[in-house]
């Protein structure tokens, strides 16, 4: 094998390993649930459900939130209500792909169920045959608490400052808010069918439950039916563009160093190969 061939193989191998990671985190499963009531396959209800889910996927190509109602002229029992929503910092193609993936997973998770909900890290899809659009619902659907930090007054002050910011109304309705206080980062979001006052009420409830149920912890997730709040020390929940860009920069720096090392090794191999040939010629004389 020639030195040049060896170099090319090493370069291809390195590029294969250190290709930039995709934004697959948005597809991570958070929670899901299905109605216990089933519908008959090939029924009008199934046709309406397929139409609803197709509308959600198509709409996600143009917006990050939408809801639909599929009415059946023959029977109210076949009427369907559904919505999707992407996380506030997820847009464009990522939102569309997340919703499509959620719909696909719902087809398996909630096979023949009249209602279902699936929350991925980057989006939510929900449908039912009873209207839930515009209805407040503060039912706890998921709670996660991080490690205890004891009663570290500085850490608790930073956490409370962040949660206070996420809960506060600022005169304009924003269903998604994110921010940080020191090394504590968090974000909160309401479903788009809530009004501004309903959203603030839901987030206040979620934050109070976080404080009560989790106590002094380094991280916490509280998902209610119509809103959620997440925070963590050290930014492990961070999804803002700066963090992603910083990670990409580090990957590029690492890749540049590795390529430099490979070039150096390849040049050394070429030099040694030439030196060996010169030695062999010298012996031949």
From TrEMBL:
Chain segments annotated as transmembrane: 255-275
Family: Belongs to the cysteine-rich repeat secretory protein family. Plasmodesmata-located proteins (PDLD) subfamily.
Database matches in InterPro entries: Cell2Cell_Antifungal, GNK2, GNK2_sf
Membrane-related topology note: Single-pass type I membrane protein
Protein name: Putative DUF26 domain-containing protein 1
Major localisation: other
Lineage, opening ranks: Eukaryota, Viridiplantae, Streptophyta, Embryophyta, Tracheophyta
Subcellular localization: Cell junction, Plasmodesma; Cell membrane
A UniProt-annotated Pfam family: Stress-antifung
Extent of the signal sequence: 1-19
Annotated keywords: Cell junction, Cell membrane, Disulfide bond, Host-virus interaction, Membrane, Repeat, Signal, Transmembrane, Transmembrane helix, Transport
Any Gene Ontology CC annotation: plasmodesma
UniProt keyword annotation of rRNA-binding present: no
UniProt record, GO biological process: defense response to bacterium
Occurrences of domain Gnk2-homologous (ranges): 27-132, 137-236
């Amino acid at each position: 094998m020639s030195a040049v061939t060896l170099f090319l193989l090493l370069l291809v191998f390195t590029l294969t390993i250190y290709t930039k990671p995709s934004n697959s985190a948005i597809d991570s499963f958070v929670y899901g649930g299905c109605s216990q009531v089933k519908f008959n396959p090939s029924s009008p209800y199934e046709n309406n459900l397929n139409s609803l889910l197709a509308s959600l996927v198509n709409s996600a190509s143009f917006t990050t939130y939408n809801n639909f109602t599929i009415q059946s002229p023959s029977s109210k029992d076949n009427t369907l209500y559904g919505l999707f929503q992407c996380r506030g910092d997820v847009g464009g193609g990522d939102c569309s792909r997340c919703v499509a993936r959620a719909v696909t997973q719902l087809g398996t998770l909630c096979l023949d169920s009249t209602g279902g909900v699936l929350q991925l890290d980057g989006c939510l899809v929900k449908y039912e045959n009873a209207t839930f659009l515009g209805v407040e619902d503060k039912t706890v659907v998921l709670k996660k608490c991080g490690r205890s930090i004891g009663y570290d007054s500085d850490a608790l002050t930073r956490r409370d400052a962040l949660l206070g910011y996420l809960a506060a109304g600022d005169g304009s309705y924003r269903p998604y808010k994110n921010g940080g206080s020191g090394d504590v980062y968090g974000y909160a979001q309401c479903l788009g069918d809530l009004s501004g006052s309903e959203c603030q009420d839901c987030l206040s409830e979620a934050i109070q439950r976080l404080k009560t149920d989790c106590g002094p912890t380094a991280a916490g997730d509280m998902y209610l039916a119509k809103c959620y709040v997440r925070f963590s020390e050290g930014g492990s929940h961070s999804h803002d563009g700066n963090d992603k860009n910083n990670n990409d920069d580090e990957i590029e720096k690492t890749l540049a160093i590795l390529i430099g090392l490979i070039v150096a090794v390849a040049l050394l191999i070429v030099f040694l190969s030439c030196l060996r040939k010169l030695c062999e010629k010298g012996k031949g004389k």
